[in-house]
Predict the 3D structure of the following.
Amino acid sequence: MTGARSREPAADQPAAEPGPARAARYERSAPAPSTVDRSAGGRPAPPAPPRAQALQRWLPLLAALGYVAAVLLAADTPPADLLRYAAYVSFALILPGTLVYRSLRRTPHTLVEDLAMGAAVGLVLELPAWALASALDARGWLRAWPLLVVVPFLAVPRLRRHWLVRGYTAVPLGWSWTVAGAVVFFTTYLSSTFLERNPILPTDENTRQYLDLAYQLSLAGEARNHFPLHVPQVADEPLYYHWFGYAHMAATSLVGGIDLPVVALRLAVPALCAAAIVLTAVVGWRVSGKPYAGAVAAVLFFVVGEVNFTHPVSMPFGTQASFVVWHGMSMIYSWVLLLALIGVLADLVDHRPDGRRPTAALGRGGFALAALLLLGSSGAKASSLPVTGAALLAAATVLVARRRIPWRIAALGLMTAVAQLFAIAVLFDFQSYGVTPDPFWSFERYWSPAPPVGPSLFGALAVVVAFLVNMQLRVAGILPLAWRSRLRLDPAQWFLLGGAVAGPAIYLAIKQPGDGNQYFTRTGFAFAVLLSGWGYVQVFERARLSRAGTAALAAASGAFAVALVAIQFRFAGGPEPSNPPDPLDPLMPLLRWTMLLVAFGSGVAALWIAAGRWLPALRGRGTLVALTAILLAGAPGLLMDMKKSQEYANGGAYATVPMPLSRVLAARWVRDHSRPGDVLATNAHCLTLEKGICDPRSFWLSAYSERRVLVEGWAFAPRVSASGSWAFWEPDLLRLGDEAFTAPTPAGLARLRDRDGVRWLVADRQVLVESPALGRLAKLAYENDRIAVYELG
């Protein structure tokens, strides 16, 4: 593969694998695919004109960007906002981040790596700039923060050389088109399940919206207007949470001049997903030295889904990439930083002072990059640093076993521990969010018989098999990599394997009442797909397929994937309860499908072995074919999810709540006529109120007004997760706010205004019509068919 740089095998790996010197000689001598005419017996063809070559190189990027832009425009994204966002990403993220990355990395590899890693570094650099501008109440100056990087790189002679870099490795066109295809596919998925289902603003009184989207928007509004952050729905409650992703949304709005709902419901998620896809491919290439290891990892991450056989799609153990990237955008934001961090740490972990690693890019600057990305990851997602720390521990343990002192890993581990301590003490204030040790808690719902008697052997085995097939089958490429090397992996591989194992292990070891322990599995998955792609490419290389064989494999793989999709579209249904009901009932469609696939695969394997006696071309290729089929088993996953979404009305196929236009218009009127420091009070707290029990997941007012509310809905406050109860912890404050609507008095309203900073009262008349006395004590400033807004003098 032109432009590839092969990693040198460890001394204990098979000698047949080419070493770096041989790979380098091949790179220098092998003609580019575009300059060889195979149909003419391999005779060199005239080289393409320089302009044609440039177009070939840039066409995948242009095609992907054009498609994403077309999807966003079709989803009613204002064209001016799209242009503003493109300028923001280019000049306020990628430009400063790329300059800093180039100054810290030692050896240039590819332009796409510099830009992708630069985008991740730019996201981290944005955080202190936003925090400083917010703390100084100088948010209008935030647009100028890139100058703090750009000016020194223009003024300092030693830094100027980073504007123009030469000596990049050529990027294979197949790699570029694969990555572009993954971006196009996943953008299509987002369009079907997210963009088409959720309008930027409600269209009428019957609009519905996924439950968490308003909460995310409220956090972005809080970050846009306040520092330090509080829980927007409870004005005096500090926000101890991984909120860095919402600060990014706020910075996007402030720098780009874009309305926050456009950022949250249109621009941020597709862009972060595209960045994560490219970074997966870049980091996979960098750590393995094999370009297509990264491309395969990107496909496994964002094209192949979970293995399942239900419709509508069930999520017995959560998901890896589908759904979660938009229902809680902190996950995709954290993946961008985590993938860049993995690339940096893998390079530092596998440092070889003898120079035998041709792909090594980082010198001492790598530690500065690691520090930046660890800082960014600390508040991006709470699951990132524990899994990263476990991955470093795995690599260190192997080096100690080999009688090497892992000084570099010890330093990186110390840096990770400091970042984790910062997150625990400063960002989370030692809040546990209800996390407690409870091994296999996530499996208890499926045990048969149920605890405390304990699961039967069959029940336990069935659940474990279902979990591995459903969530982990895409990482099967790790197995041949480990098997062929007899677990004599190099430190970078142990680092990736440690993260791949630590994620599911932590998930299974702890309990979180809201199933938040699933995020550890998702964090570990970022490590796992990189190693799985690496293993797949090694198997592919050992098979030594001809060009015709490669085409046949690609065609057969496509046909297999299409067949799986067609079968599931036709036959997949919902779980059927047994009589009497069994806890395993939700898993039975998956287990039956697994047995069918195993039986089919066993039959094909037997025929393959028999046919190999007469067809030499089949010999030694069975492992590749089998591994390809296993990795593609989840091909219907995201397509089934898209099919499900198309069968639902506005709001999508997930838990939705009413988001009436009247509420949103009133909230945005308050935003436009109030100051950022004004506090609101409302009589609308409950999503539902049944038998006197309030479901306090109401976030619309804080979300669309971008203002703090005295008490709105408090369900997602940290202390609620810790207590496990939805009862509000300060009933006197709740009563005081409600009495402003039901029994207002001059003294009560004065107390709200003077002590709590309340300037606006927002009454939802479908919850309860306000007292007539309120109109005499406060000014009616706005009303529509449902909402009345009063201003306190």
Q: What stands out?
A: The first strand starts at residue 36 and ends at 37. Confidence is low (pLDDT under 50) at residues 1-45. The two ends are 72 Å apart (CA to CA).
